[in-house]
Amino acid sequence: MSKESKELGSDRILRLLDLVPFLTSHQGIGISDLADQFSVTQDRILEDLSTLWMCGLPGYTPLELIDLSFDSGYVTIRNAETLAKPRALSSEEVTALLLGLNYLMDQISDADSNLREIIEKLIVKIPHTASDVHPGQVLVSHAVPATYRATLLEAIKARTHLDLIYHSLNEDEMGHRIIAPVEIRQERGVEYLLAFCFSAGDYRSFRLDRIQGISDSSQELPPTLTKSSPSVPKMPAVVRVLGSMRMASEKFQLNNSSAETVQMVEYFSEDWLMRQIMSCSGEVVLLEPSHAVLRIRQRAALALAAYSTDFKRP
């Protein structure tokens, strides 16, 4: 009984709103069965029915009030058309359903076309119950396909090359690489592939969840390629923090200090450095290297000019 007494008012209101359409479609249901359906005691469901008995449209005469009968132990309801429509799902409920349906879709084989069609229809229909949720906004983060992992492991064992389609976060584009995979390892819960990239002429690490396609080139891996990866030199840069030091520390792994300080950072890719600086929206300013500063200015000028109606890309 103590658990029932701690019920939030908002929870009871939602249950009352759900009771009306449920009773409308389950005329004559027993009190005990109704309590079981809503996971409450019979005393609590009787209190809810008594509350509904006093609800209705303005005027509050017997003509406007909901007509409930439950003295016999069985519930019937009339004059409740205004609340007979089931309550719309909340954004959280819609999101949970979409996540579940997307997960089920990934587990169903292509042979079960009927089941996949039903799920696809549900995914389209469900968001209409919540105006701020769109099916395209709710997607399950796909795990690495088992076929990709099997192909990588087989190539590592057979010492063969692979054609890789990879989404590079630095350039934010899809690229085609020819690689010689060496090993799969895990860091902070993320799987990486260590491989020799013939496009870069050096060893590189690839996140498995960013691999968009793999094909076996069936070429033998030269014996000179081993796990010992040559160290890739880091390049220095100088930045001035004008805003949030916490944000700057997360992006550039800076030492904790007060704002408006000049600090040295290290980077591997100039494109990555530019993207990080521009994403700070002026809270972090790049001072060196000068050629990267110039590129950022040029890119920022193009971005601003794009808002002009008479701007034409050269």
TrEMBL record:
Transmembrane segments: none annotated. Residues 11-122 form the PafC HTH domain. InterPro entries: CBASS_pafABC_assoc_protein (IPR051534), PafC-like (IPR028349), PafC_HTH (IPR043839), WYL_dom (IPR026881). Residues 150-214 form the WYL domain. Signal peptide: none annotated. It holds the Pfam family HTH_PafC. This is Unannotated protein.
